[in-house]
Amino acid sequence: MDIKWNEILITGDPLILGSQIAIVLTVIAIVGGLTYFKKWGWLWREWLTTVDHKKIGIMYILSGVLMFFRGGIDGLLMKAQTARPEMNFLDAQHYNEIFTTHGVIMILFMAMPFLIGLMNVVVPLQIGARDVAFPQLNALSFWLFFSGAMLFNISFVVGGSPDAGWTSYFPLAGKEFSPGVGNNYYAIALQIAGLGTLMTGINFIVTILKMRTKGMTLIKMPMFTWTTLITSIIIVAAFPIFTVALALMTFDRLYGTHFFTLSSGGSDMLWANLFWLWGHPEVYIVILPAFGIFSEVIATFSRKSLFGYKSMVVSIVGIALLSLLVWVHHFFTMDAGPAVNSVFSITTMLIAVPTGVKIFNWLFTMRKGRIKFTTAMLWALGFIPNFVIGGVTGVMLGMAAADYQYHNTLFLVAHFHYVLIPGVVFAVFAGLYYWWPKMFGFMLNEKLGKYHFWLFVIGFNITFMPMFFLGLQGAVRRAYTYSAESGFAPLFLVSAIGSIILALGFAVFCYNIYWSFRYAKRNVSSDPWDARTLEWATASPVQFYNFAVLPEVKEIDAFWHMKKRNSGLVLKEEEIQEIHMPSNSGLPFYMAVVFGITGFFLVFEWHMAAAVAAIGIVIGLIIRSFDYDDGYHVPVEEIKNIESKWRKVEGGVKHHVG
Amino acid sequence: MSANVNTSLPLEYQTEQSRLNILGFWIFLGAEIVLFATLFAVYGVLGERYANGPTPNDIFKLKDVMIETLLLLTSSFTCGLAVFEMRRHRLKGLLTWLIVTLLLGIGFLFVEINEFIHYVHEGATMQTSAFLSSFFVLLGTHGAHVTFGIIWAVMIIIQLIQRGLTPVTARKTFIISLYWHFLDVVWIFIFTFVYLKGMVG
Amino acid sequence: MEYKTNSKYPISHIIGFFLSLLLTFAAVFVALEAQLSFTIVMWIIGSLAVLQAGLQLFMFMHVTEGEDGKTNIINMAYSAFVAIVIVAGSVWVLTSGHAAH
């Protein structure tokens, strides 16, 4: 393809020009800052080459915050454009690009890294392990995800953003109707990030199945670990479908095949079919770990064990099967006939059952509990009513006949925001407030946290509740404007005002992170919430080897019972042995860079350059194959030193706040 | 982790890390099953959309397909023999059978590439019709896996020569043997649901 | 937890190989020589393929061996379930009812 060099950088739009200037300034500031404070070596040794699951988790979470910001700006721009009828703030093309990137970024580059980040930080600690099964692969997962996310994000300044919606339906997403590079970005950047996610799935399955500490049978695992296991299984079952779908999209766009085209026998609906075969399980991939977080938070702050642990396990295992059997409800209106639509209506009703079971379990966990209204608990409490609204409207949409009315309206948009924001974003916030002291050794400010909570929840409801009614009145999604005669204007305006409150809530969160980094008390105990699971049985922040001696587990909520019995908490010096740890490696970072470059060339269809860059991938694999680095051993003396430091401090493992 | 060595087990299972790797690879194979299933689903949907282009009966040649099938099937057998020799701690036997396996694999690729060139000369390309798009991508993905397997196996043969049979080299050999058998499993389904199905009608 | 290490001859491999050859040629015969309807042929050769895949899994790959034998079986069964859902589901959804026309 001929590339017009003068069109690579997007020019002419003041908003984008502003972003370009901001990006350049930020890069200069980061490079300058690192050089001035002589932090390059630190960055390389401590972060870019790390294989420590806790640091990788923190990098995931940081990426999540960054992407939340980017996706949030997209959302605010949309709300600004639709605040009044017939606005000219954004043109149709720009609006198309923004709702596309908003969707992709919020699902794949915000929700996923937040949850995978928390999984990384917490799961090895909860099962009493020193790291994940494949630490270097874990680093590769993160860097591939990051590489894909960055490649996707540069699209709006280099070459143009994808503009066919986050679902990228054909024929619109095909070469015929979208000739630019935007949708190449979609196909290739998501492919790279998806590879990383698949590896994460494999890694966590093996970690959880094989690396649990002595005595922790499957049925004694904390609920967050259970949901991570099932999520990982669904990742391994679903992501290869997306891999194939994206590869076929790439073939159609770059090499002229006819998978999804209108001509030569292609089937546009085959794309929708494959997309949702992955896409529906993907919803459960993000929602299950969130359920796990709520389970931990609710149990801790109700000071009771989780009600109905076994029914919870059965219902999430059931979801591993059912989540793959409902995908057609996303395109009932394709009209595959009454038999198909009926079957998928029924499976959709069925999958609401295990979720309902969980809601009751949480309610019964709180019943007669001595509830502590911490910020983390507030998020869990806020989740239940809001998520129920999302769930119930989902059942409405799941009825095939009724779906013909709701399809493609803002009702649907309101529904999935009511599922994903309470279900995932509230959970992420609950998890961050809850596990923050474990990650960093200080707590997020609870008072600011409550401002954050109330602004966010109120803003969320004001933003999305009107959209149910707009949808019922016939307002379609993805339309960049509407006429004054439509009568939609008041509700759109309310929704826009809500989005500002929502954004204020997020701003308070960012400020809270800043404030707490600067001013929060550093002498918090290693168990500030009087919690129940093993991650609280070690130091905060956690020492790099996690546990001096791996704990032994006898029952569910192991740490809680250890505290009750006052046993197993004191470290016996003679039990300390050398600890084997994996070495750092620059290879994952290198691979991500090479993947990113190869992807970039492919986006612009410079096939020779891409082929040359791909040689770098093969070289990386060969280097890895010949790498016999077996890690290193931490001497007993060093462990004793580290342990004596935190165990002597006031607020050791037996003490807690309040 | 590496301290946990159990010498009563076969070499490839002796260290904890090896057991993790082998289980991890099985789970990866689970993902590969889904990947190929998706390609088969695509072929199942598009496989009869010829768009006035050639049909399977026009282009498939039983002779080529049978040669490919027998080569790959035999290579799967010899690969099994290689692991069998490894379990008896016979490096020489292991290397011999591994190299035989590779030669059979290369033979398979050679015939398959010729088959594809032949199709293209007959005007049956990836761009001709949805049937051929899905055919070439399904077969091509399998062929790419075989190619990757050959390069990978060469790396392992080098390491076996350099280091001999150790728990680590044994584990690597065992894992590629799983991969190689798996490629034969995929081929069985290609043989049945692409070639034989195409030639029945 | 059983590993096949001590036998002198690779008996299970040889049996597996000959059975695979047999199944392959049987499939060719059924598909190309026996005069059966298309549906019956597909059912027979499909079953033969599944059988042969099973041979590879059990006789060559020793799927049940080792401390994770059970996990492997569950893993393969779940993958097979997902594979069937994807293939049968996609074909059904996209070639039946109104979608076929």
Automatic annotation (TrEMBL), chain A:
Cross-referenced PROSITE patterns: COX1, COX1_CUB
Task: Please tell me whether the keyword Zinc is annotated for this protein.
Answer: no
Q: Which GO terms describe its molecular function?
A: copper ion binding; cytochrome-c oxidase activity; heme binding; oxidoreductase activity, acting on diphenols and related substances as donors, oxygen as acceptor
* Enzyme Commission identifier(s): 1.10.3.-
Q: Quote the Gene3D superfamilies the UniProt record gives.
A: 1.10.287.70, Cytochrome c oxidase-like, subunit I domain
A Gene Ontology BP annotation from the UniProt entry: electron transport coupled proton transport
UniProt KW keywords: Cell membrane, Copper, Electron transport, Heme, Hydrogen ion transport, Ion transport, Iron, Membrane, Metal-binding, Oxidoreductase, Respiratory chain, Translocase, Transmembrane, Transmembrane helix, Transport
The prosthetic group or cofactor this protein requires is:
ferriheme a; Cu cation
Q: In which pathway does it act?
A: Energy metabolism; oxidative phosphorylation
Membrane topology, record value: Multi-pass membrane protein
| One of the record's GO cellular component terms | respiratory chain complex
Q: Where in the cell is it found?
A: Cell membrane
Q: Which residues cross the membrane?
A: 15-37, 58-78, 98-125, 137-158, 185-209, 229-251, 283-301, 313-332, 344-364, 376-402, 414-436, 448-471, 491-514, 610-626
One Pfam family, short name please? Answer: COX1
Which transformation does this protein catalyse, written as a reaction?
Answer: 2 a quinol + O2 = 2 a quinone + 2 H2O; 4 Fe(II)-[cytochrome c] + O2 + 8 H(+)(in) = 4 Fe(III)-[cytochrome c] + 2 H2O + 4 H(+)(out)
ATP-binding as a keyword?
no
The highest taxon in the source lineage is: Bacteria
Co-factor binding comment? Heme A3.
Taking every annotated instance into account, which residue ranges of this chain make up the domain Cytochrome oxidase subunit I profile? 36-554
**Family that this chain belongs to:** Belongs to the heme-copper respiratory oxidase family.
What is the role of the protein in this entry? Catalyzes quinol oxidation with the concomitant reduction of oxygen to water.
Q: What is this protein called?
A: Quinol oxidase subunit 1
**What species is this protein from?**
Paranoxybacillus vitaminiphilus
UniProtKB/TrEMBL annotation, chain B:
Q: Name one GO cellular component term.
A: plasma membrane
Q: How does it sit in the membrane?
A: Multi-pass membrane protein
Q: Which domain of life is it from?
A: Bacteria
Q: Which reaction does it catalyse?
A: 2 a quinol + O2 = 2 a quinone + 2 H2O
Report if keyword Hydrolase is assigned. no
| EC number, UniProt record | 1.10.3.-
UniProt xrefs under InterPro entries:
Cyt_c/ubiquinol_Oxase_su3, Cyt_c_oxidase-like_su3, Cyt_c_oxidase_su3-like_sf, Cyt_c_oxidase_su3_a-hlx, Cyt_c_ubiqinol_oxidase_su3, QoxC, Ubiquinol_oxase_su3_dom
Any Pfam family:
COX3
- Looking at the record, the residues that make up the Heme-copper oxidase subunit III family profile domain are 23-199
Compartments reported by the entry: Cell membrane
Q: Which GO terms describe its molecular function?
A: cytochrome bo3 ubiquinol oxidase activity; cytochrome-c oxidase activity
GO terms under biological process: aerobic electron transport chain; ATP synthesis coupled electron transport
Which residue ranges does UniProt annotate as crossing the membrane?
Answer: 20-45, 65-84, 91-111, 131-161, 173-196
Could you tell me the keywords of this UniProt record? Cell membrane, Electron transport, Membrane, Oxidoreductase, Transmembrane, Transmembrane helix, Transport
Q: Does the keyword Ligase apply?
A: no
Role summary: Catalyzes quinol oxidation with the concomitant reduction of oxygen to water.
Family statement drawn from the similarity comment of this UniProt entry: Belongs to the cytochrome c oxidase subunit 3 family.
- Binding partners and assembly: Heterooctamer of two A chains, two B chains, two C chains and two D chains.
The name this protein carries in UniProt is Quinol oxidase subunit 3
Taxonomic source organism: Paranoxybacillus vitaminiphilus
TrEMBL record, chain C:
A GO biological process of this protein is: ATP synthesis coupled electron transport
| GO CC terms, sorted | cytochrome o ubiquinol oxidase complex; plasma membrane
Record InterPro entries: Cyt_c_oxidase_su4_prok (IPR005171), Cytochrome_c_oxidase_bac_sub4 (IPR050968), QoxD (IPR014250)
Report the function annotation for this chain: Catalyzes quinol oxidation with the concomitant reduction of oxygen to water.
Q: Does the keyword DNA-binding apply?
A: no
EC? Answer: 1.10.3.-
Q: Which NCBIfam families match?
A: QoxD (TIGR02901)
- Kindly state which reaction or reactions the protein catalyses: 2 a quinol + O2 = 2 a quinone + 2 H2O
**Mode of membrane association:** Multi-pass membrane protein
List the protein's name.
Quinol oxidase subunit 4
* Compartment(s) of residence: Cell membrane
Q: Which domain of life is it from?
A: Bacteria
Upper taxonomic lineage: Bacteria, Bacillati, Bacillota, Bacilli, Bacillales
One annotated GO molecular function is: oxidoreductase activity, acting on diphenols and related substances as donors, oxygen as acceptor
Organism listed in the record: Paranoxybacillus vitaminiphilus
Transmembrane segments annotated in the record for this chain: 12-32, 38-61, 73-94
As for family, the record states: Belongs to the cytochrome c oxidase bacterial subunit 4 family.
**Keywords, comma-separated and alphabetical:** Cell membrane, Membrane, Oxidoreductase, Transmembrane, Transmembrane helix
